[in-house]
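Journal club side-thread
Mid-discussion, someone asked how the predicted structure for our own chain would compare to the paper's figures. Pasting it here so we can look after the session.
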Amino acid sequence: VLHDLSLGLLAAVEPTVYFVLSAKAQAEGISIAHVFVKHYHARLETLGQAAVTAWNLPVAFQDVLWFAEIGARHPEEPHAYACVDYANAIAEQQGFGVHTWEVQVEVSEAIIREVGIPAEDFDEVLEAIKRHTLAWAPMKEAA
């Protein structure tokens, strides 16, 4: 998934760093991206942005990477990028994220407001997403 490009690049280019950060993240129950920030004082997404720029991909690719966790702050498309952020958080919460351990997921109030799923509908939305994901997964493996 595009918003995980930076993580994939880190694993491919610096596997030792990836595994060290992964072990720290697992021990703390947080994402590798959060450990990266704690260790390097920079966002992991800067790696993906550099690659997207070098590969001359459209600006939307850079935006998805940069605004993946702060979507509501996008100057032109706050709703679209907030949805990407929210979807990523939901995937992690439901065990469909990139981590093999449980990760504390926090979604900002700004993202929740921007996406606009009423609190009383949230559990139903999660169940629907889980059903659709599980229905899609076997087809993916067969391909």
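Post-session note: The longest helix spans residues 122-142.
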